[in-house]
Design brief:
This protein is an alpha/beta fold. It has helices at about 20-40, 55-65, 70-90, 100-115, 180-185, 195-205, 235-240, 240-245, 255-265, 275-290, 320-340, 350-380, 395-415, 420-440, 440-445, 450-475, 480-485, 490-495, and strands at about 5-15, 45-50, 95, 120-130, 135, 145, 155, 165-170, 190-195, 210-215, 215, 225, 230-235, 270-275, 300, 305, 310, 350. The chain has two domains: about 5-300, Rossmann fold; about 350-505, Isoleucyl-tRNA Synthetase, Domain 1, CATH 1.10.730.10. The structure holds 5'-O-[(L-methionyl)-sulphamoyl]adenosine.
Length: about 525
């Protein structure tokens, strides 16, 4: 047994029918900030992401591209899905592909266990199926079509008619888990967030759960069932299992993979878009219960990035690639913007104007300006040697107290995935320090030799504040904060930025007098955009 449970967070695994857009990058970025924050706290963390490679949707995309499904997914993963992790600066611990042997074998094993436990049976299925959602639809799920689909019933998400299926499948006895799910969620009301998502799931379960096909006979691109090679595992019942197979479910006892499973199970957070809440908060925990495994501790459903009021999507040609934004603003500003501007859990729209305005106000003029003024003045007035900060006055004490308060707000907020509250708490601290600089007028103090000690204190206060900001914003903007860490001599004086702890960040006076401060390149250079 592992000594203690690691914090295990996973993103959904994304369909590789096409390249990633900023909707996908949004989820991964949020996951990355949440896990980097936990690491900065000193916690043991496991961050998993990956891709969902099977199913009709991917198979058809490959056919349309004139290649085999395997060639299609290999190419897209190598050319688009792995590179985007670098582009957005994600520090994931693993990347799972559902075509990997480890996944295939463990999925087969899992369903054998569920079948041995009596929750799998064979029966005919007839009903609508939406390939866009890869989902068996109930007739109540469909809506009236418009335009070319006038008079037909269509999927509300994809706006296209569902296909009518008629096949003999293996069914998963979902109906057996309604009471257990309700009991679990009543005892753990935070296990689905936000609250609206909890309510939606509870009312869905209370309406009564029906059994659902766990295999497909008319699809070939998938994982065959071990007891019936004519059928492949229904893509969702293959994909959801990535969260278990990637961390060693079903691995050889005593192996490193089996140890990993003991260390991380169950997931602390399954982070998903609200479109796939039902799969994660109903089917997924029921599957785990059927295999005698603990369900996730929390499913968090975030909102959609919208374009023209609708969910951004490649299939509707509204997807913006992350590089389009990052090439101009950089990965740090991308990460900052989406988590700061949109309340996590709600929908949000992206606009170049808003991105540019916040970048300029909060990053270039706010933090960037504080860093460049602070470091430049230490270089200019004190030859780059940090002066001592004795004899704090009320003005400095206000900064020290404000820092403690910012940490008190930011730490629990980001721990609970309320990123904007956490980011804003630090931003307000930065605003206060900028105001302090304006009020103290160190450039005036510098002209008067009699004020030398006072100037020392002011300069020390600015650089100490930047030290704290570098630590607190490192999970959000790792590249810029590591540059800042270098500029203020943090690395030489206190060691790697990643090793600084949130619990200790408000302790004042960590940078010793004499620390070498340098003025580097602007952290957030001003950007001109074509309006
Ligand atoms: N393959 C399934 C998930 C299987 S998980 C076991 C799937 N893939 S997906 O590529 O269609 O989308 C996955 C996730 O990408 C969404 O749940 C969401 O987290 C993110 N997003 C995709 N489009 C998005 C927006 N427009 N806005 C916000 N997030 C979006 O569903």
């Amino acid at each position: 047994m592992a000594e203690s449970k690691a914090f295990f967070l996973a993103t959904p695994i994304y369909y590789v029918n096409d390249a990633p857009h900023i909707g996908h990058a949004y989820t991964t970025t949020a996951a990355d900030v949440a896990t980097r924050w936990r690491r900065q706290r000193g916690e043991d963390v496991w961050f998993l992401t990956g891709v969902d490679e099977h199913g009709t949707k991917v198979q058809r995309a490959a056919e349309a591209g004139g290649v085999t499904p395997q060639e299609w997914v290999d190419r897209l993963v190598a050319d688009a899905w792995l590179p985007v992790l670098e582009t957005i600066d994600a520090a994931n611990d693993d990347f799972i592909r559902t075509t990997e042997p480890r996944h295939r074998e463990r999925v087969q094993r899992f369903w054998e266990v569920v079948r041995e436990n009596g929750y799998v049976y064979s029966a005919p299925y007839e009903g609508p199926y939406c390939v866009g959602c890869e989902e068996f639809k109930l007739s109540g799920d469909l809506v009236d079509g418009t335009g070319e689909f006038e008079g037909e019933k269509v999927c509300p998400v994809h706006g296209r008619p569902a296909e009518q299926l008629q096949e003999t499948n293996w069914f998963f006895k979902l109906s057996a888990f309604g009471d257990r799910l309700i009991e679990y969620y009543e005892a753990n009301p935070d296990a689905i967030q936000p609250r609206s998502a909890y309510n939606e799931v509870m009312s869905f379960i209370r309406q009564g759960l029906v059994d659902i096909s766990m295999s497909r006979s008319s699809v070939s691109w998938g994982i065959p069932l071990s007891w019936d090679a004519e059928q492949v595992t229904y893509v969702w019942f293959d994909a959801l299992l990535n969260y278990a197979t990637a961390v060693g479910y079903g691995a050889e006892p005593g192996s490193a993979d089996a140890e990993l499973f003991d260390r991380v199970w169950p997931p602390d957070v399954n982070l998903v878009g609200k479109d796939i809440l039902r799969f994660h908060a109903v089917y997924w925990p029921a599957m785990l219960m059927a295999a005698d495994l603990a369900p996730p501790r929390k499913v968090f459903a975030h909102g959609w990035l919208l374009v023209g009021g609708e969910k951004m999507s490649k299939s509707k040609l509204t997807g913006i690639a992350p590089e389009q934004i990052i090439d101009t603003f950089g990965s740090d500003a991308f990460r900052y913007y989406f988590l700061r501007a949109i309340q996590f859990g709600q929908d949000g729209s992206f606009s170049w104007e808003d991105m540019h305005a916040r970048y300029t106000a909060e990053l270039a003029n706010g933090l960037g300006n504080l860093a460049s003024r602070g470091t430049a003045m230490v270089v200019r007035y004190r030859d780059g040697a940090l002066p001592a900060g004795h004899d704090l006055t009320g003005a400095e004490q206000q900064i020290v107290d404000a820092l403690a308060r910012a940490v008190e707000v930011a730490d629990p907020a980001i721990g609970e995935l309320d990123f904007s509250t956490g980011i804003v708490a630090v931003k307000e601290f930065i605003d206060l320090v900028n105001l302090y600089v304006t009020e103290q007028e160190p450039w005036v103090l510098a002209k008067d030799e009699a004020q030398a000690t006072r100037l020392d204190v002011v300069l020390n206060t600015i650089i100490e504040s930047l030290r704290a900001v570098a630590v607190l914003y490192n999970p959000v903007m790792p590249k810029a904060m590591s540059a800042l860490w270098e500029q203020i001599g943090g690395q030489a004086q206190l060691g790697p930025l990643a090793e600084q702890r949130i619990a200790n960040v408000a302790t004042w006076g960590q940078l010793a007098p004499g620390t070498a401060v340098t003025k580097g390149a602007a952290l957030f250079p001003r950007i001109e955009v074509d309006e």
